[in-house]
Amino acid sequence: MEQEEIWDAVTARAYDTPGTGMFAPDVLDPTVDRLAELADGGPALEFAIGTGRVAVPLAGRGVPVAGIELSRPMLRQLRTKADEAAIPVTIGDMATATAPPSAAAPGTFPLVYLVFNTISNLLTQKEQVACFRNAARHLAPGGRFVIELWVPELRKLPPGRPGVVCRSEEGYLLVDTYDVLRQHVVSHHFHFDESRQARLGRTPHRYIWPAELDLMAQLAGLSLESRHADWLGAEFTADSRSHVSVYRAGS
Known about the structure:
This protein is an alpha/beta fold. Helices cover 25% and strands 31% of the residues. It has seven helices and eleven strands. It has helices at 3-6, 9-15, 25-39, 55-60, 72-79, 125-138, 210-219, and strands spanning 44-47, 65-69, 89-91, 109-114, 139-150, 163-169, 172-179, 184-192, 198-206, 222-228, 242-249. The strands form two sheets. It has a seven-stranded mixed beta sheet with strand order 3-2-1-4-5-11-10, sandwiched between helices. The chain has a four-stranded antiparallel beta sheet with strand order 6-7-8-9, with no helix packed on it. Strand 1 (44-47), helix 4 (55-60) and strand 2 (65-69) form a beta-alpha-beta unit.
């Protein structure tokens, strides 16, 4: 599926879950706190800004935020919370698009960020490298590119089997199937109730190992400044399931 097909009007309408999931205060507040600290009073650019889960509260903290977003339905949801003057957005691919003309010009952002595993929505290594280069193009000297990303869970795969159940809870089942030759994974989201029917949604990703991510950064002229297991600064270890990595441009 193309990304435009995945992030359609139905998905956009159901995306926001205020107070729960990725919108829960214990998930969202540390994210916003850390990004506000890294922006240090300057403007921030969010790749794949979506419905404004992070951008809206970050702007509420006094950080000028601009965005790039591929999905028009997702942007329409954002516009119910903030207009173009408050959070300017360019429609386009985060690997190639340029920040909105009404926002800070490329080369002047102290902070570019890409959260909640979204770089894996780019399905080729070439596109992911281009995303890093696009971030570097927008950064001011000494600026930072922040990525939040999951660690591939291949250790969970049974020998000879391509899939694994990642989550099983009331009304929801998540099954990931892997193509290890292409570093692709498809997440199958099953939502169900007491009836015999279930609703299925699928999202494809290209997973990236932390060391590969660091090499992408080097190709874009960025260097790893820090890596933690979460937004609160927990130590990143071999057992960490995700990471927040901060890359810095040269001064």
